[in-house]
Amino acid sequence: MRQQLDKQLNRLHVELIKMGSLCEKAISLSAKLLVQRSDSIMREVFAVDSEIDTKEKELESFCMMLLLQQQPVAKDFREVSAALKMVSDLERIGDQAADIADLSRYIKGETVHGLLHINDMASATVKMVTESVDAFVKADLLLARKVMEDDDIVDELFNRVRGELIQMIQVKQIEAETAIDLLMAAKYLERIGDHAVNLAEWVEYSITGARKNNEHQQNMW
Predict the structure, then answer these.
(1) DSSP string, 170-195
(2) How far is Cα 148 from Cα 154, in angstroms, rounded to an integer?
(3) b vs e for 145-182, b when ≥16 Cβ sit within 10 Å of the residue's Cβ?
(4) What pTM was computed for the model?
(5) DSSP secondary-structure letter at 50?
(6) Dist. CA 96–CA 191, nearest whole Å
(7) I need a surface site. Which of 5, 94, 122, 164 has the fewest CB within 10 A?
(8) Are 88 and 16 in contact (CB under 8 A)?
(9) What are the Cα distances from residue 71, in Å, to 2, 93, 125, 213?
(10) pLDDT (tens digit, 9 = 90+) per residue, 104-125?
């Protein structure tokens, strides 16, 4: 019985890694769209988001099967329950990436220096998602807590983007409408960072049985 459960938990890890990889791909592609307008890349983002949605349903069903049929002990129960919550946050990350792709339709093609920090934000959030999933699979509490701390980097990058865009509007280097769209894209990336923190907090719960009761709110600035 234990051997069967361990085998299924390993499968859960593999599938969660696959879902995390899809999210990383969606984030990277959506950020690329802000610099390089491409219908094919946009279609790819939406296709990846659809894959993420499918993976969410599959993993939800698998987690429920484990909880109902395998009667896991406390630690295993926490692990499966945490995975179930993480799947929901990963699905939301896919949605945020698709939102960025959709927003890119309305961003005009002029060169914008502020995009450099948006790309930095995308790279930072991809790293946070990767490390959150790694922390879950490896039961690495220190790595999970590092992800929580790294959210400060994403928040600081968002503040830089906002400040730069304000300055660019003032010197008429960018149209206000374009600046607002870029700021919205940066805000979506900030939200992805918040979801990555949620992932890390669920990892902490799976390991320790305790979790901070302060899930990041999806507030506008």
Answers:
(1) HTTSS-HHHHHHHHHHHHHHHHHHHH
(2) 11
(3) eebbebbebbeebbebbbebbeebeeeebbeeebbebb
(4) 0.90
(5) H
(6) 8
(7) 5
(8) no
(9) 11, 30, 35, 26
(10) 888 765 555 556 788 899 999 9
Residue pair 113/164 in contact (Cβ under 8 Å)? The answer is yes
Q: Which two tokens stand for residue 194?
A: 């918040």
Give the contacts of 110 (CB within 8 A, at least 6 positions apart). 174, 178
- Using 50, 70 and 90 to split pLDDT, how confident is the model at 220? very low
CB 101 within 8 A of CB 46: yes
Q: Which two tokens stand for residue 206?
A: 């799976």
Task: Specify the residue for token string 């990277």.
Answer: 28
Total residue count of the chain as it appears in this document: 221
C-alpha to C-alpha distance for 121 and 133, rounded to whole angstroms: 19
- What is the token pair recorded at 131? 């490390």
Residue 60 tokens, joined: 């939800």
